[in-house]
Design goal:
alpha/beta; Rossmann fold; 47% helix; 2 domains
Amino acid sequence: MITTVVVDDHSVVIAGVRTWCAVADPPIKMLDAGPTPAVAWLDPGREADVVVLDLQLDRSGPAYADLKRLVDAGRRVVVYSGRTDRETVLNCVDIGAFTYLTKAEGEEHLVAAIQAAAAGDSYTPPMMSGAIGADDRPHRPKLSPREKEVLLEWFHCESKEMVAKRLSITVSRVNQCLERARLKYAKVGREAPTKAALVARLIQDGHVSVDEL
């Protein structure tokens, strides 16, 4: 059974997600929920396959530091937020969130995102797709440090399993980084479906040099 933990400070949201998970096919078990990221680190939440994270837990601003800590620890994080601005979405993608959903996207997308994250598959809901496609920041597409690290290691390795071992991450995390990089290039009309194509794109954009390959 897929398991999740929900970090949110609104009881009505937690109750709704709990219900959606219970009636999902197959059902998703919510191990814990609460208003602080601590529930994702303490039993039973630390055993959850997927962390559903509300980005705005207090008045201090988006919880980017908590998201980064979870991502760096190898947790699969679905950001589920009321924030709909493009900058916030892109920041979360760059940090390494598995996907970003607005709370307006509701049950269908949240359940599908949790299931995809647990399986190590990619999932791009409408808001995130639009934000990436409209990304007009300099030097786009912008790859996160982890994505670049995985890509560079992958260029040197024979398998994704070897990349995962060298970086002390899961194979699913390797696949997620590769898929995310391909998606970012596809969204700007520069598809990179093969390993060779990705190498070419990264050299063109200055993410890696020939000497690093």
